[in-house]
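Hi U.,

Before I forget, here's the chain from the pilot set. I'm dumping it here mostly so it's searchable later in email.
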Amino acid sequence: MRLVLLGPPGAGKGTQAARLVAKYQILHLSTGDMLRAATEAGTPTGLAAKEIMARGELVPDSVVVKIIEDRIAESDAAKGFVLDGFPRTVAQARSLDTMLAAKAQKLDAVIELEVDPEKLVDRIVKRAEEARRLGLPVRKDDDPAVFATRLAAYRAQTAPVSAYYRETGLLKAVNGMEPIDAVTRALGTALERHLHV
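Structure:
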């Protein structure tokens, strides 16, 4: 099963991706984690990415897609994956489709966690308060001002990705504002309906 999980920052993608991984025995592919792993491993693509990041530049789509391609070629990816944090733009979505098609593969579904942006800020503030209460470090992106910037960037860049996948018939929307377990159940139902049509 090959999935993409979409949704703005704070929508719960990481939490739900972990549950999908456990249920379907697939990989959770976070592009940030993969970039770090590739640079640490010193792979040719990783070294190219490291050089680009050292200059303070964004890693181009072609490099990110190559890192994903290399990762899904590994044996532990045979059952599939859930991509979180990619694609962020329509150009990346097209590159991903092209790369998978070259391997005679395709995405099975794209799940979007739909959330109310106003209520997301409350969620982020609560998450930061909870971390402080437990003596845990507060994520930098849990600052409301930083979060607002990330949300604006998401709307501008990533929201059009939803429209792209809606046109392909792959997009399934789930209410991300429900309690975590309810979102998990809705995700499972959306996937079962989609994959058994």
